[in-house]
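Suppose you are handed only these lines of text.
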Amino acid sequence: MCVTCVKYCRGSLLERLANGGSLVVAEGYVFEFERRGYLQAGAFVPEVVIERPDLVKILHEEFVHAGSEVVLAFTYYGHREKLRLIGKEDQLETMNRRALTIAREVARATGTLFAGNICNSTVYRRDDEEIKAKVEDMFREQIEWAVDEGADFIVGETFGELGEAMLALESIKKYGKGVPAVITLASAGRDFTFDEVPFEDACRQLEESGAAVVGLNCGRGPKTILPLIKKVRASCKGPIACLPVPYSTNEDYPTMQSLTDKETGKPAFPYDLPGHTCTRTEIEEFAKSCQEIGVNYVGLCCGNASHYTRIVAEVYGRRPPASRFSPDMSKHFMYGDKSKFNQYHTEDMVKFTKAEK
Ligand SMILES: [Zn+2]
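From them, the structure of the protein bound to zinc ion can be written out as follows.
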């Protein structure tokens, strides 16, 4: 029993990942709340934290129920620049502290880890010192609030440039009072960051600079992220992270932003992405591959939902509470164990679900 969380805490981030340990992590809050009608596609600012904190808490709880072992505070795009964009800069600290408080409550009640969250600033310029100072300041305030609210570690994610990822890491080291950093790069269409560094080299540099976990998230789907994460595994010594989007990307369309509608050819991002969602089997295969490769911090990003998180958790040997309701088609009256059902025409019923030829 842990005195801090007063529950069955299984140790810190570093303890849980030591000796090849793993963590299952649910992300995807922005897309999920957009889908539900509580924030707007485009700006993608987590306004739901202010307007319906009860719903944010419930989604955290639902993800933990499905197997997430990290509760990620919903502060993604809750930074100064994004709030300026929607004219709500005055709510910046309130939004951040409220998101952190909700995540902490759920994490402490469930023995999971509580993570703060920073991300790409959308304004970073590698050749502009003034802007870099501004970005560092944006990171600083979010990091300080996260530490003040008791975050166990901080996730810095979806960086397209190694320079910005490095600035995030350095900011966590400078202002984070020693909390570990998980830094993930957004894996775009090329195998290089926007500042022309192969992703595996970028991850190694982040690891050598002190990130506790490094890896890739967002952007690519399972099929196109796996070849890259294999290179990251070969290049890095410590724990690595892999959290793709659950969309069926392929060699020609390697990212969710490159996917197009099959009939019209129009970009599918973000409005028509549902037409490209992965099957559960694809997610299961993805999780198995991650296990074989040696991915320690595993999950899904934009487009994730609880049924996917449960699959990842189960492949990684967990049995979260939601596993009680994992599919059991033997109980189905048409497809199940015939001896259990008093249905005399099930073969016909199955046959008639298909087109008549
Ligand atoms: Zn994402």
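What can we learn from it? The radius of gyration is 21 Å. The pocket of zinc ion is lined by residues 218, 245, 301-302 (CB under 6 Å).
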